[in-house]
Amino acid sequence: MENLSGGDLLTRALTDVGVELIFGYPGGAALHIYDALFRQNKIKHILVRHEQAAAHAADAYARVTGRVGTVLVTSGPGATNAITGIATAYMDSIPMVIISGQVPSARIGEDAFQETDMMGVSRPVVKHSFMVQDPSEIPIIVKKAYYLASSGRPGPVVIDIPKDMTDPNQFFEYRCPNTVSIRSYTPTVKGHGGQIKKAVRAVMAAKKPIVYIGGGSLAGQGPELLTRLVKKLGVPVTSTLMGLGAYPGTDEQFVGMLGMHGTYESNTAMHNSDVILAVGARFDDRVTNKIEKFCPDATVIHIDIDPTSISKTIAAHIPIVGSVESVLRDMLKMIETSGKSLDTSALNSWWQQINEWRDKHGLYTQNRFDTSGMIMPQEVVQAVYEVTHGDAVVTTDVGQHQMFAAQYYRFDKPRRWVTSGGLGTMGFGIPAAMGAQLANMDETVACFTGEGSVQMCIQELSTCTQYNLPIKIININNQALGMVKQWQDMNYDSRYSEILYEDSLPDFVKLAEAYGHVGMKVTKREELKDKLKECFAMKDRVVFMDIYVDPHEHVYPMQVPLQSVGDMFISRTERT
Amino acid sequence: MTKRIISILMENSPGALSRVVGLFSQRGYNIESLSVAPTEDVSMSRLTLTTLGDDEKTEQITKQLNKLIDVIKVIELSNSVFIERELMMIKLKATGSAREEIKHCVDIFRGQIVDVTPTIYTVQLVGDSDKLTAFIHAVDETAVLEVVRTGISGLSRGEKVLSL
Ligand SMILES: Cc1ncc(C[n+]2csc(CCOP(=O)(O)OP(=O)(O)O)c2C)c(N)n1
Ligand SMILES: [Mg+2]
């Protein structure tokens, strides 16, 4: 067998684990690796304009494909620039491998040029990390990294590679086993039979059940199995921001997102439920509101692959550690063979109650915003939804526009909703759209953003030009850091501290044009739909839609802080 | 909040300890004491850690520790019967009549004087933490010049073993 340099071992190992696409940015400590990349043709590299964007793009690629995203950066500033993107992926449990160049082994600890302790800096935001200490270990480390990133509860894994490990003049045999096992890592996949039986019994005896799904239910066949189970039981289902699309968003049994900006019907149903079946969700503070007031009558069944998620905030009465896929499959089998179903009359009156809530304040049963004046942010999302027939891959930035997108773009299929939930990272939208587009060049990819967020990674418009990534940017321009403004309106007597730009916003149309793209400004309601149609008809162009909306609109419903799940402001003037 | 003793078997690899310690600061847990060394199999380290917590908190800590990739096994020793030992070395000013008094005290506590100068005794003592603390209180506090304690090491009583 021919011997390879460390750089070639790396590209070979990456190819062997199935990597086709790398997002990255070169620099001194990564030069040998970049040279190895140049000398091969199996892996395509996308040169971003900022390492943060490389991580976000790889993250989005992972979210839409279910595969591991790959990032390559240099040491020091390259590595630290990637940290925000790594933390974003970590909080949302996204499988990703980040390869960072490092100063040569002999220089480590000397404060060498562009030296940063990447192992240390990234430690709190990675699932695991490796530092290469012997070039011949590169293939096995790569294999382990991809295995760790994608198994159990997925997450980002760092491989830090000192420059001398990829020395082009030193050669090693390529040795890599077909499978890896790590003695200290054995995620529990199969749920405990006794616990599952208990869970099934509790669900079947429920009078007011609700299924609460999160990002974990997107794994593998989770969405199909979940849909089968929910259909079989005939029960309502609600989703976290992260879980949207795991269950069809337009289905009757879907009561909408829950949590801080969840629908009235889902939060109210949660609060009044007697059994909660939590599937791959983690009872995050944006969902539970005040822990002590959380769903007082509910028996909590919690299915999660990560034992630390169970009973971390809300104590589970019936904990089940295991993969969503495996546990749901076992539950279905048990329910199907028992031939039993829920108490029909109880379930009917539960649905009657839920439908009353829907009719009263539902987001989809009535228009919950004023359409007499300026364009409203909600109708922008609705219009995009209609124009794209509800079938776009949607990415977002962070703020009010993100919540409106979550509320009004209803996903019938999984892996088409790409948003930074856990970390809430402004700047995520455009690079995420690039990653999603690269995952499938035939899809329509729309990025909902705000004039604040979009400027955090705006440089990526150049990357879109270079690689012909025809993403559609829907800038919901409310001329303010709207989400912050909403909090200042609600909690600080509208003292607008540092949320306005004082006429300094760029001309986004010209900016888009400067990068070689199409820009359109929309200010009138009458034009909205037609302009959007024009935008999405330009299949092979990046289009930047700068849509001016009512700057005063708030996101509702909104949970009243420190209260129960079901305690909400429904509008500026109504409270539950 | 009571004292909890957690025993960890983990990979003896660079960075493993920093991940354990990092977890505690990251999640706002405290470490009262920590002792760590390789086991009979040098690829593994055994770590004993004491912390303060109620049942829920301790359960979350052990789960979080288990989640670290380098950690092979975790048990809470204080959950059942266990043996704990700590080693202390204490340097005491020992002149005149104090020399006899200290020696007497060391005998009572079954310690050893391991270094002697005309004015100093260095005493070594092994036992559970309370015994070591009791010794410090038993000698004249103005005589204490320096104290070094290893932190608790422990294992389960009986047949139970923490191994691969
Ligand atoms: C990197 C980063 N910095 C700060 C924040 C805090 N933050 C959350 S939403 C928001 C305002 C976003 O403004 P914009 O993008 O215009 O969206 P809008 O809320 O107006 O729709 C800010 C500053 C954040 N989430 N991320
Ligand atoms: Mg804004």
UniProtKB/TrEMBL annotation, chain A:
Biological process per Gene Ontology, one example term: isoleucine biosynthetic process
A GO term from the CC aspect: acetolactate synthase complex
Cofactor(s) this protein requires: thiamine diphosphate; Mg(2+)
Enzyme nomenclature, EC number: 2.2.1.6
Segments forming domain Thiamine pyrophosphate enzyme TPP-binding: 397-547
InterPro entries (UniProt xref): Acetolactate_synth_lsu, AHAS_TPP, DHS-like_NAD/FAD-binding_dom, THDP-binding, Thiamin_PyroP_enz_cen_dom, Thiamin_PyroP_enz_TPP-bd_dom, TPP_enz, TPP_enzyme_TPP-bd
Matching SUPFAM superfamilies: DHS-like NAD/FAD-binding domain, Thiamin diphosphate-binding fold (THDP-binding)
UniProt remark on cofactor binding: Binds 1 thiamine pyrophosphate per subunit.
Catalytic activity of the protein: 2 pyruvate + H(+) = (2S)-2-acetolactate + CO2
Enzyme class, first EC level, given as a word: transferase
The keyword Cytoplasm belongs to this UniProt entry's keyword annotation: no
Protein's pathway: Amino-acid biosynthesis; L-isoleucine biosynthesis; L-isoleucine from 2-oxobutanoate: step 1/4; Amino-acid biosynthesis; L-valine biosynthesis; L-valine from pyruvate: step 1/4
CDD domains, sorted: TPP_AHAS, TPP_PYR_POX_like
Any GO molecular function: magnesium ion binding
Gene3D superfamilies in the record: 3.40.50.970, TPP-binding domain
Keywords on record: Amino-acid biosynthesis, Branched-chain amino acid biosynthesis, FAD, Flavoprotein, Magnesium, Metal-binding, Thiamine pyrophosphate, Transferase
Domain Thiamine pyrophosphate enzyme central as annotated: residue spans: 196-330
Family under the similarity heading: Belongs to the TPP enzyme family.
Official protein name in the record: Acetolactate synthase
Protein source organism: Candidatus Endobugula sertula (Bugula neritina bacterial symbiont)
Lineage, top ranks: Bacteria, Pseudomonadati, Pseudomonadota, Gammaproteobacteria, Cellvibrionales
Automatic annotation (TrEMBL), chain B:
GO molecular function term, any single one: acetolactate synthase activity
Gene3D superfamilies attached to this UniProt entry: 3.30.70.260, ACT-like. Chain A, domain 2
Class of enzymatic activity (EC top level): transferase
Entry's EC annotation: 2.2.1.6
InterPro entries, per the entry: Acetalactate_synth_ssu, Acetolactate_synth/TF_NikR_C, Acetolactate_synth_ssu_C, ACT-like_dom_sf, ACT_dom, AHAS_ACT, AHAS_small-like_ACT
Keywords for the protein's UniProt record, in alphabetical order: Amino-acid biosynthesis, Branched-chain amino acid biosynthesis, Transferase
GO annotations of cellular component type: cytosol
One Pfam family this sequence matches: ALS_ss_C
Gene Ontology biological process: isoleucine biosynthetic process; L-valine biosynthetic process
CDD domains membership: ACT_AHAS
Keyword ATP-binding assigned: no
Pathway entry: Amino-acid biosynthesis; L-valine biosynthesis; L-valine from pyruvate: step 1/4; Amino-acid biosynthesis; L-isoleucine biosynthesis; L-isoleucine from 2-oxobutanoate: step 1/4
Domain of life from the UniProt record: Bacteria
SUPFAM superfamilies: ACT-like
The reaction(s) this protein catalyses: 2 pyruvate + H(+) = (2S)-2-acetolactate + CO2
Segments forming domain ACT: 5-79
Purpose: Catalyzes the conversion of 2 pyruvate molecules into acetolactate in the first common step of the biosynthetic pathway of the branched-amino acids such as leucine, isoleucine, and valine.
Subunit: Dimer of large and small chains.
Alphabetized PANTHER family for the sequence: ACETOLACTATE SYNTHASE SMALL SUBUNIT, ACETOLACTATE SYNTHASE SMALL SUBUNIT 1, CHLOROPLASTIC
Annotated family: Belongs to the acetolactate synthase small subunit family.
Name the UniProt record assigns to this protein: Acetolactate synthase small subunit
Organism expressing this protein natively: Candidatus Endobugula sertula (Bugula neritina bacterial symbiont)
